[in-house]
Amino acid sequence: MADAPAVPDLALPVSERDHAMGPAAAPVTLLEYGDYECPDCGNAYPVVQRLIADLGPKFRFVFRNFPLRSVHPHAGVAALAAEAAAAQGKFWEMHALLYANQKNLDEVDLSRLALRAGVEIYRFEADLSGERFSKRVAEDYDSGEKSGVTGTPTFFINGQRYTGKKEYDPMRKAIEAAATRA
Question: Which domains does the chain have, with CATH numbers?
Answer without folding.
Answer: 19-181 (3.40.30.10)
